[in-house]
Amino acid sequence: MGWSQVYAEALSLIGQVEPRVAEATRQELADQRSSLKLIASENYASLPVLAAMGTWFSDKYAEGTVGHRFYAGCQNVDTVESVAAEHARALFGADYAYAQPHSGIDANLVAYWSILAHRVESPTLERLGAKSVNELSEGDWEELRLTFAQQRVMGMSLDVGGHLTHGFRPNISGKMFRQLSYGTDPVTQLIDYDKLLADAREFKPLIIVAGYSAYPRRVNFARMREIADAVGATLFVDMAHFAGLVAGKVFTGEEDPVPWADVVATTTHKSLRGPRGGLVLAAKEYAADVDRGCPMVLGGPLSHVMAAKAVALAEARQPAFQDYARRVADNAKVLAEGLLKRGVKLVTGGTDNHIVLMDVANFGITGRQAESALLDAGIVTNRNSVPNDPNGAWYTSGVRIGTPALTTRGFGADEFDRVAELIADVLKAAAPADSPSGPSKAKYVLPDGLAQRTKAAAAELLDAHPLYPELQL
Ligand SMILES: *Cc1c(COP(=O)(O)O)cnc(C)c1O
Question: Could you give the CA distance from residue 11 to residue 305 in angstroms, rounded to a whole number?
Fold first, then answer.
């Protein structure tokens, strides 16, 4: 029996209980097949990865760690969790891997609290001669709680591509820590390491966070290590976006975060092409603290997702994944060059990872209008602010795109150059619609027929590179 029958049968069973869910699931496949997915944080996991998630592992509670659970009967969960961790350690060359986090945010919380446990809690317990926090008096505990709140983090500014979880107020990380941002050079738009060092010397952070979700360039993690060492900070790298390029050995040496960082967190579903989930890697010194992610931050692990992580990480250890990762980066270069030569401005003037950040201000539209006009034409992107964005974080002047998903479908240089052409044509033709108070920042107009023509051109590319060709659904 093939995949088509397996999924047809599964959808039919689902449909007997709730037809709307079965129908939405079918429709989601159709929609993903028929749109140019350029969202830089999305991908398509393999069918074995997807299948590994849909099992009875979902029914099992397994709080604790491998071989040390608070529930009986966890021997099979132990197997999938240790296989996932084994693959992660081998793939990334890490001392220790923790496969339980449910998402990128959860992985970051595990990372933060393990660093706080290591740097703040353990020394306090030692000083007071206590073995665990449960032994502390009310007064000592209250003092320790207040000490947590005084810790400082430096993360990349949201404005230049950092992530909300790097100490920003709307996220819990900003409520936990005092935060200072580091930014990029106003001219080159690249990370200004000298300024970061100077600011770190003044601010004295406990943690320096490196990593981004909208910065189209590589980071020098050896330099980040030097800066962290100079101020006694723990180096935490959030590679949620670019883990696939690390796994696929596109980022090596000073660009590979794992040998330089104390703790590394990632998602597993972005460029890594696994199930929706998180993962934490740690140097030996931090391993025991990360291992306490449950109960520190997490409840029971998603065993079915850990099974899928194990499958995805096994896939990422195949030579084909290195080829994939190289194509992701090569394709991003082609996409960037294709846009530049057609008059589209790019933040930092290009890319050397999987992200391209377009600045659409010179077309007289906002990022929001660009995002909507592109969507109309069958091109799925997301708006994003650019450094010092005059349109703010809601309307923005930027649109972020990336190559991981379409590279999974088999798009190469020719296809990405054509994608650049389709995008540039839409951006050039889009104009703000009139509103009673002047040109709208949200509504837009496109010339008649352009959206349809672009959709047809996109369909040609997509039909030549079908998504899940094994699935006749
Ligand atoms: C996507 C992302 C996250 C959050 O991942 P979720 O799985 O959505 O919680 C965290 N950090 C960075 C840098 C990201 O890009």
Answer: 20
Q: Which CATH superfamily is domain 322-463 in?
A: Aspartate Aminotransferase, domain 1 (3.90.1150.10)
From residue 145, alpha-carbon distances to 124, 250, 389 in Å are 11, 42, 38
Q: Which residue's CA is minimally distant from atom 10 of ligand 1? A: 104
Sequential DSSP letters for 223-285: HHHHHHHHHTPEEEEE-TTTHHHHHTTSS-GGG-STTT-SEEEEESSSTT---S-EEEEE-HH
Which residue ranges make up each domain of the chain? 57-316, 322-463
- Check residue 357 and give left, alpha or beta (phi > 0: left; psi -120 to 50: alpha): beta
102: CA distance to ligand 1 center in Å? 11
pTM value is 0.97
249: left (phi over 0), alpha (psi -120 to 50) or beta: left
The b-or-e profile of 37-61 (16+ CB within 10 A means b, else e) is bbbbbbbbbbeebbbbbeeebeebb
Q: Which residue has the tokens 């005059």?
A: 390
Q: Do domains 57-316 and 322-463 have the same CATH topology?
A: no
Q: What phi and psi, each to the nearest 5 degrees, are found at residue 345?
A: -80, 135
Per-residue pLDDT, 435: 83
- CA separation for the pair 430, 400 (Å, rounded): 17
Q: Cis bond leading into 205, ω under 30°?
A: no
- Note the pLDDT tens digit of each residue in 132-153: 999 999 999 999 999 999 999 9
| Residue bearing the CA closest to ligand 1, atom 15 | 213
The three-state secondary structure class of 132 is coil
Closest residue CA from atom 6 of ligand 1: 104
Nearest atom in ligand 1 to the alpha carbon of residue 162 is 13
DSSP element (H, E) containing 429 = helix 413-429
Fold of 57-316: Aspartate Aminotransferase; domain 2 (3.40.640)
Centre a 10 Å sphere on the Cβ of residue 255 and count the other Cβ atoms it contains.
Answer: 18
CA of 151 to the centre of ligand 1 (A): 22
Which pLDDT band, with edges at 50, 70 and 90, does 456 fall under? very high
CA of 282 to the centre of ligand 1 (A): 18
